[in-house]
Amino acid sequence: MTTTESTPQSGTVTGEAPTPTGPTSKIDYSEKIPNNVNLAGDRKLQRALEGWQPKFIDWWKNLGPSIPTHDVYLRTAIAVGRDGWAHFDRVPMEEYRWGIFLAEQDPDRKVNFGDRKGEPAWQEVPGEHRSDLRRLIVVQGDTEPASVEQQRHLGMTAPSLYDMRNLFQVNVEEGRHLWAMVYLLHAYFGKDGREEAEQLLKRNSGDFDSPRILGAFNEETTDWLSFFMFTYFTDRDGKYQLGTLKESGFDPLARTCEFMLKEEAHHMFVGTTGVQRTVQRTAELMKEHGTDDIWKYGGIPLSVIQKYLNFQFSVSMDLFGSETSSNVAAYYTSGLKGRWMETRRKDDHQLHDLTMDVPVIENGRMSTKTVPMLTALNLDLRNEYVADCANGVKRWNQELEDAGLEERLFLPHQAFNRKVGSFAGHHVTPTGEIVDEATWERTVDDYLPSRDDRAQVAELMVPHYDTGDFAGWIAPPSVGINSMPVEYDYVRF
């Protein structure tokens, strides 16, 4: 597919896109707030969101990407459907058209699980579930601007224009995902929703007095290896959380998350290929010099890549919450939040008589206990996530195998470095060995990035802004974006 080159005008999006083949809902870019929800038909809601819009722009200017650019080769949604939902063109970042996009409505959609299974999906918020639904939307919404804040300085050390463009694509889409949640809060939750929408811009990642809600979104993204691990592991958690909300009996939330999942796929692609290209370059240097100690050759040692993997995987595991939860049982029974791929499950979708074994540590040993399935849905979702994560590690290890190396990366034990759930308060190594606090403190730098590790990685983070130029610690991609050459000037200053 080719893209028509043109001079961008006021952030317009031009160029070719795939012809839609599935049901679509066109997005109206003539509106001040682009949308496919007929915002103009609700003047009160439109005015409220137009009042929130300048605050969002101020947030983007203050806490969005810190490096100034002229324009960036970005993808923008043009229609909602199975295909044909994106255009590529050069867009000034500050003129990107954030908006509100929901997947096409299915008028026959039913609630597919819980005690209200078989009822028509809800188009309004059931009064008895108002507080729980608002909380689910706020927690999801809080993660979206948080990652932009965590990544705001990365453009200053981009390993290539290709990678900088991918960073900015992730950033603008996270900004749009914030808009998605803010729309739901404004449209369906009245004064409480409007107040929550204000707070989404007042909390900031890592802020001492007003941090983001979830711990992983207050961690500092120190370098590009951290970014790639974040987009692989933590954005993958987002995929699974959105997947459960896509099943919700509250239809506007389900349709919102269904569209967000389309964009989330690119974020995980950035992580998957970013780590893969880092491992590829590391393998090349290891093979060339016969050692893992490749700092002096401008590469990141495989042992350090493993430590970064250990850290991001473990903090992302905490995002799933405790293995057992009465809240998640209530969400499921009420029809608010389903399971991953709910309709593909071969059970009664109510789960009242089912059980599940959950992991625990008892008397200093790994063990399990049997609990009602309804209370173990966080673990059910986490298990799906772990299996998915393992696929990427296999892909990265293929690079090592192709280079003729025996070393391999691996996912650490599920109990490693956990702050939430049944493993919190225990010290467990990446291989699953339970150790005492003194042993942990003595060996922790063998498992997690030390201050020295991060400092040495930071020394490699030197910007490469020339077209087709790549940092020495990462291999170039095999193909460019949207069939453009790898050497294309994806970002202009």
Write up what this structure looks like.
The chain is mainly alpha-helical. The chain has one domain: Orthogonal Bundle (Ribonucleotide Reductase, subunit A), CATH 1.10.620.20. The protein is 43% helix and 8% strand. The chain contains eleven helices and nine strands. The chain has a three-stranded antiparallel β-sheet. A two-stranded antiparallel sheet has the order 1-3. The protein has a two-stranded antiparallel ribbon with strand order 5-6. A hairpin with a 2-residue loop joins strand 5 (355-362) and strand 6 (365-372). The longest helix has 39 residues, at 251-289. Mean pLDDT is 93; it is low at 1-18. InterPro entries: Aromatic_CoA_ox/epox, Benzoyl_CoA_Oase_BoxB, Ferritin-like_SF, RNR-like. This is Benzoyl-CoA 2,3-dioxygenase component B.
Blueprint of the fold:
Blueprint: E1 25-26, H1 43-63, E2 71-77, E3 79-80, E4 86-91, H2 130-150, H3 161-188, H4 190-202, H5 224-245, H6 251-289, H7 302-318, H8 326-334, E5 355-362, E6 365-372, H9 377-402, E7 427-428, E8 434-435, H10 437-443, H11 451-460, E9 491-492
Antiparallel strand pairs: 1-3, 2-4, 2-9, 5-6, 7-8
Shape: globular
- End-to-end Cα distance, whole Å, is 26 Å
Q: Count of helical segments?
A: 11
Strands, count = 9
Task: Give unreliable regions as ranges.
Answer: 1-18
CATH architecture identity: Orthogonal Bundle
Reading the helices and strands in chain order gives EHEEEHHHHHHHEEHEEHHE
Strand content: 5-15%
Task: Give me the CATH fold name.
Answer: Ribonucleotide Reductase, subunit A
The major sheet is characterized as:
3 strands, antiparallel
What is the level 1 CATH name?
Mainly Alpha
Average residue-wise pLDDT:
93
CATH superfamily label: Ribonucleotide Reductase, subunit A
Helix content class: 40-55%
Strand order of the largest sheet: 4-2-9
Alpha carbon gyration radius: 23 Å
Helix vs. strand class: mainly alpha
The tally of domains stands at 1
Protein name: Benzoyl-CoA 2,3-dioxygenase component B
Organism: Blastococcus colisei
GO molecular function: dioxygenase activity
Keywords: Dioxygenase, Oxidoreductase
